[in-house]
Fold these 4 entries.
Entry 1:
Amino acid sequence: MDQFKEIESFVTVAQLGSFVQAADKLGLSKAMVSRHVSDLEARLGVRLMQRTTRRLSLSEAGADYLQRCVQILAELQEANATVSASAVQAQGLLKITAPLTFGIRHLAPLWGEFLRVHPRVELEVNLNDRLVDLIEEGYDLAVRIGQLTSSTLIARRIAGTRLVLCASPRYLQQAAPIRALDDIVQHAVIGYTYLATGEQWRFSGPQGARSIEVRPRLRSNSGDTCRAAALADQGVIFQPTFLVGEDLQAGRLVQILPQYAGPELDINVVYPSRLHLSHKVRAMVEFLATAFAQAGRG
């Protein structure tokens, strides 16, 4: 049995969570895919997957092996694609999901140029700040900001951003002075619902890592709403530079305690696997990486 076929079957089953779906994707019978995985386990002498009638899960060894196999197959796919990319044109429907504010401000201006360069591609762009399951909901790729949680996704960093503590000049003039991080908890705070650390705001400062627990007067799942409230003199926000950078430069917002830096967040393009990566997905990944490198967005 071809060990690459065994590995390919194992990776596909692990990523889709189903032997039936993996068989459909690979164009094989369910029995053949199951045999590939069983032969691989026999070859390795270890159980990679726990199978029951209701669910399928990776063993500890299987989870570690999956990451290595994804990389091996990705490098093979990359080598093949490098040779054949010039002969095949990107085409078909490309479904993308991205965060709402970032998608409007930094991605929307790029779509026209991509479609001009790739006239045979159709785009469907969904902007949503919730964490979308790419495979379950049928997306080809996503733009995500912050720490990635799925080991089965391939990520390419295209830019970075940093969380900044800020408020409007008028608010700061009218409110009590802010001389230390602990002073923030006495102020009107505007919280972002999807912040990974919740209502714990984390910083690195002169004495190392610090955090404060805030109790927002206003909470929203929209960064734009948080920004608008701050511009309306309603309180202190902790938002990324891609959203408030222009306001800081124009003086509409003022950074508070600049000696305390908020976390730096990666902006990534993510997709399920480089295995069987379509030309349309590859074209978009390369396009976004080049566009952000040239423009210094984020």
Entry 2:
Amino acid sequence: MLTQSAWFYTKSALLTLGGAYAVLPYIAHALVEQFQWISPAQMMDGLALGETTPGPLIMVISFVSFVAGWNQALFGSHDLLLSGVIASLVATFFTFLPSYVMVLLGAPLIQASGQQLHLKAPLSAISAAVVGVIMHLAIYFGHHVLWIAQGFDLYALLLALLAFYWLQKQQASPLLVILACAGIGMVKSLF
């Protein structure tokens, strides 16, 4: 698993453009469906954790890799914590390794090519593709929030619509909306 994880995170760092929201659907698909290291619920927990902190990519990768290492019991059932920590460290290291190598080797080339007009069209196309990938993440997230094991979650839909209303029509602070929705969710869980 550690070798697969190292190669997967290196590949995901090299093959995806656009930041965390562009790479997270790829990671979610691979960890849940391809490798089956974690469950969809565990991936949703990781995505939710990532949205509560700065730097969502590393938070999600560290969390889901820890859970995957724990689930796979890499060093036996008596060393689950060690399995999780090592899996998380491998994923984190190999996620950022290509970026550091590319920055060190490619920075002078990027700096020199910044004013070349023939590069602007491809970069615009990449930006458009990234928007599509981010929309895919929103759909993935929405699907797993709204369709739970018991069926469609009308409560989650109503809360999402209320949050959208507060953000769009009332111009409420995102932090206040997050806190209000968390409070409403906590109250609901008590009843």
Entry 3:
Amino acid sequence: MNDGQLLRYARHLLLDEIGIEGQERLLAARALVVGAGGLGSPVALYLAAAGVGEIVLADHDTVDLTNLQRQIAHTQASVGTPKVTSAQSAMLALNPEARVRTLPVRLQDDALLREEVTAADVVIDCTDNFAIRVLLNRVCFALGTPLVSGAAIRFEGQVSVFDPAEPASPCYACLFPESADDVQEVSCATMGVFSPLVGIVGSTQAAEALKLLSGAGQTLTGRLLRVDALRMEWRAVNVMRDPACPVCGHRAMPG
């Protein structure tokens, strides 16, 4: 690290759990953030502020006036522009040293997705599309890349980490089966969402990603953290791998 970086990241360096070695790991890391909306905004901003070496931001959408109630990476002046471009500008304004690569596409192409996940040290799922979540989970598990998953609707949110490097870790499909008949697509446009909730959930996702990259603390692997913002109640639920899961069930159970 140079003198400017030592000053910029000084508050991380003071933390024994991160320190110089952990910050250097962050500076050398690459994160893939899928979604630059309500969840992706705080994730992208905190990863940039924390000094993650390269951040790849994928989103096909453009900024709409209705987004501004909660998507804090965007401004009134960004309306009509690609979300990845708007978020990139906010990230660079916060940390000019940040390296941000934008993908203004819906990340459904298998070859492109595999290429990006292969290059990433962590993937943060900030989407609101079940099909994309399923695809991300399959590719992340196949390539051994940890996945930080978050969701928020109305006043309720949840976060978990699915880490193929941990033998006992479930995958997203263990909790939400791909073939589940009762999975319904829900949208902020029809259900509404409490503005700070996406900040709470997205910030938690950012914290989990930074812990994975720096090696600090214990992640949410094997736990699903739920928040009810209407009552401001938190609950952590232990989750187990499903031996019959079509995605990860073929792994030998830890003895």
Entry 4:
Amino acid sequence: MSELIDNRAQRVRQLKHIIKHLHAGKPPSEVKQELEEVVRATDYSEVVAMEQELLAEGMPVEELRSMCDLHSQVTRDLLVAPPARTVPPGHPVDTFRRENEALHGVLLRMRIARKDIEAMPDMADCSRKLFEWRQAYNELMDVEKHYQRKEHCLFPALEAHGITGPPKVMWAKHDDTRALLKDLGEALKQPETRAAAWKLVGATAGAAAEDSVEEMIYKEENILLPMSLGALTEEDWAVIWHASPRYGWCLVEPQKGYQPSDQVQPQAGEGVQLPTGGLSVDQLTALFNTLPFDLTFVDADDRVGFFSEGPQRVFARSRAILGRKVQHCHPPKSVDVVDRIVGDFRAGRQSEAAFWINFQGRFVYIRYLAVRDEAGQYLGTLEVTQDIGPIRALEGERRLLEYDSPEVASQ
């Protein structure tokens, strides 16, 4: 057994050495010859271990992200994926797989429409094919729900088992794909209908977006999902299953079959005594869920300790993030800002940071507030998020009672 472990560690070291050469500019053909010797006895778990070690040695996520597609292409023909493990219909993995299958279908339709336009004479009217391309693109944008479930439900479970590298790299690749899809979407809004105008769009933005989504599907099916099935417990999958609906489904609905046990819920009637009064757990929960803004609390160890669950949250939250490092709850490109805010709050240099953004048709005000005890000891950071668009639109005064919502019939 020790010999097998030593051999595995040696292969991981060799993989890391070879991939560093690839990133340094060594021709892929030469790297592939070196890899052929190493990968005869390896699998994707060792590629994952290699990525983990590179991050642990200090390689930035952005740098590893920039090279992961290249080493994926080099190793793809050499590594043999393990047989897919069977899971019940409706299991989170089953849903991810079915969504990927549906995404493949949409990508095929996009590619056909794009290729048909590229084959047309330059001055031809491509309105019908352009409509098909735009329609498929609109369906493809459902992939955002797929990515968000991975980021906020699956990744926290992997991190709890010490698997932090692949989620970081994959989240960064999600953002790359989002950017490519956004660029393609902006291009597809143009009113031009002559084929000549769309050939360049198809060969650049169209092909890049398709390839990025396709590459992510490949990594999920051959690396992420097999790795997750091997690492996570039934309790983990139950948490993921319960948290998933708040993010929605991509193109297909989950099948019936998988039914985990219910998550443990706080018992009703447990009182919480505060200096200014007492509330039952039910009252306290309802109070937080009624607030016209969203709260998220990160404790002094940078772990998410609490969030409110109002019916119109600006940013979705999953209970899977409880206990998760706040740095892991943000895209890699935003982690530096998060670290700076938390560091300034902890050191007492600052007590508040505010941002305001346009988000999905809403004007959102985001405040980060340092939470300290009476002695000034840092306890954590409170995030307060609110759609203030309706507030900004107020004019004049309202001094008489006037409800904004229609009257609700009494029961």
